[in-house]
């Protein structure tokens, strides 16, 4: 591998890790400062993630929204640095493109809060969720079997499947829509986090791994 490419891989890996740290930090800060109303506080199981960026109800909305924009921007930059680190071929390139779309979707979610234009906000969120799941799944499928990456390949595929299955089951018109609005401890917010979590964790762990490994094929 050319020295420059190896350097680009390290840059991309660091951007992956930093992007996730910023996203998690922005979410934690926004959640901790969210006001309780009539003894009802922000609930990660029932409140949508986007409530944290609502400019009318979330005091820390600038931290969350700008943090989400920075997350998407760093993820996009990291993907560009890592374009030759991911598996080549149609499936690998398609996975990279979907992940780039997911990054832009995240930027869009932060740019258009839920209380401004909900339809556009929701579209950006759907693009980010679905493209992220597809991107991770395709990257996993494009990794060749029979080498030291077998465990990582399986983990990547499972992460993509979890995101896509949960997204399809609970958000499509024919899915389990009523459940996501329930007053139980696990509702819309829990579903969103189950969709987002595997992809975000994959980005972080992939970044950590690529700090010591040069390529994924």
How would you describe this structure in keywords?
single chain, about 220 residues, about 70% helix, mainly alpha
Report the portion of residues in β strands: under 5%
Biggest beta-sheet profile? none
Mean pLDDT: 89
Q: For the terminal residues, how far apart are their CA atoms?
A: 12 Å
What is the C-alpha radius of gyration, as a whole number of Å?
Answer: 18 Å
Percentage of residues in helical conformation: 55-70%
Query: Which stretches are low in confidence, meaning pLDDT under 50 for 5 or more residues running?
Result: 174-184
What's the total count of β strands? 0
Number of helices: 7
Category from helices, strands and their pairing: mainly alpha
What string, H for helix and E for strand, traces the elements in order?
HHHHHHH
Shape: globular
The count of domains is 1
How would you describe the overall organization of this protein?
This protein starts with a helix and ends in a 7-residue tail after the last helix. Helices cover 68% and strands 0% of the residues. The chain has one domain (3-210). It has seven helices and no strands. It has helices at 3-33, 61-81, 90-111, 118-142, 150-171, 177-180, 188-210. The protein is globular and about 55 Å long. With 217 residues, the chain is mainly α.
